[in-house]
Structure formats: C-alpha cells, structure tokens
Predict the 3D structure of the following.
Amino acid sequence: MVNILAFIPGHKFPDVSITGPICPLGCKYCKGYYLRSMEPTLTPKKLYDTAKFLAKRGAKGLLISGGFNLDGRLPIEPFLTVIKDIKREFNLVISVHSGLVDKNLAVRMKEAGVDIVDYELIMDDYVIKEIMNLKSKRSHDFVKSLEILEKYGPPYIAPHIPIGLNYGKIAKEYEAVDVISQFKPYVLIFLVFIPTKGTDMENVKPPPITDIVNVIRYGGLKYGIKVIEACCSIPRELFEVFFE
C-alpha cells in the first residue's frame, strides 16, 4: 500500500483575516489581493464567533492571517486572549501568519496556545525596502525575528522562503536556505512568485522553472533530502543504485 499525502486547505482548515481585505503595507506583488478570499474577523468577538461556527461545521484548524502594518507585523495582540479561549473551548489547531515579531509577542502567542507560526524569511534588502515597502527594515530584522520565534515562540515554526520576489530574479534565496538550515526546522516551505492581476507586478514573469528547481534542490541537499537522478517510477528498493 502506497501512502500519499496531499495537503489541501479547505473547510477543515480555513483561513481568516483579522484586518479584512486591508493591508497597510501594500507589497507590490500582493496589494492585499489574497486577503479578499479570507473570512474577515475584524474584532476578537468576530474571531471567536467565526471559530465557534467553523468548529461546529467540522473544522479542525484555523489559519489566522491579515494585512501587515508598516513595521511588517500582523496586529494580532488584541486577539491573543480570545485565541486562548478558542484553543480551550474548541481545540482547533491554530496557525498564525505573524510577520516580524519581538520577544513579547512570541511569548504571548505561545501562552495563548498558538500551535504554528508561518514565517516568511526575506534576505533580499531590495525586496524588503522597495517591494515590500518596509523602509526601516532589513534582512537582519527578519533573521532576528526567526531567532526569537525559535527560542521563545510556539512549538512549531514553519519557515517559508519566497522565490522570485525580486521581479522574478533569484537573488538571496540560497542565503535564506543557509540561514534556516541553522535552526533545523521540522519543515521548509517554498513560495513561488505568481504575477497577480491588479498589482504592481502583474506583468512580471516568474523565475524560470530551472531556477526554481535549483533553489528547491539546494534546500533539499541542505536538509538531507535524497535527490534521485532517475525517472519517478523507480521503486524505493532501487534508490541506492542511483547514489553510487
């Protein structure tokens, strides 16, 4: 019997936005576009009521996201008390798309019962300043937040590496892999730039497929994942032949 895992977010793991469709940061590749498909939960009460409804409907988890402020943070502090109530009463797996954090926020998310933090590591200062509009932040701020989350935050930190945000070019993605590899996370997630209609970058081409594969391959090598130069139909018991 072959076990295949397909991760498909849906009614069992819906997403909500605590800022609705609004994102003050307005990154050039998104402009809040992806928030529009999320259920708006603009107040702690609305978040609680939505979580209660979703749990009764059969949800097992909840992704809490939203627009980032001009410091690159999700304004989640007012919601932490009710997140603790949601965990206690509905036992949902809670994932938060936090953005940059400080020690206080990392600790408070852990205390509130947040299970997972989805964290994007950006190492390209040009992307941070000119594309994400974070004029006062640089790559060291992103590394520092990851360090804080790993040390003080919730039990599972899921680092994400965006590929191609520098107008479709590969720039600091390999450096991001190197940084993350020092923390030995339980998972490494790659996000590939998609030109999105209505944004400043809607006509920008994504990186070439070969460049994307090379970044992911590099990540695989860093994490000890076997890269097999053979057809995908090769059975597991013959893998070693291709490592000679």
Helices lie at 44-57, 80-90, 103-112, 125-131, 139-152, 173-181, 209-222. The radius of gyration is 19 Å. Residues 15-243 form a domain with the TIM Barrel fold (CATH 3.20.20.70). Residues 219 and 225 are 8 Å apart (CA to CA).
